[in-house]
Amino acid sequence: MTVDRDDIRGCLVDMDVIRNDEPLDADDSLFERGLIDSLGITILIAHLEKKFGITVPQHDLLPDNFDSINAITEYVNSKLRDNSRE
Question: Is the entire prediction scored with pTM above 0.90?
Answer without folding.
Answer: yes
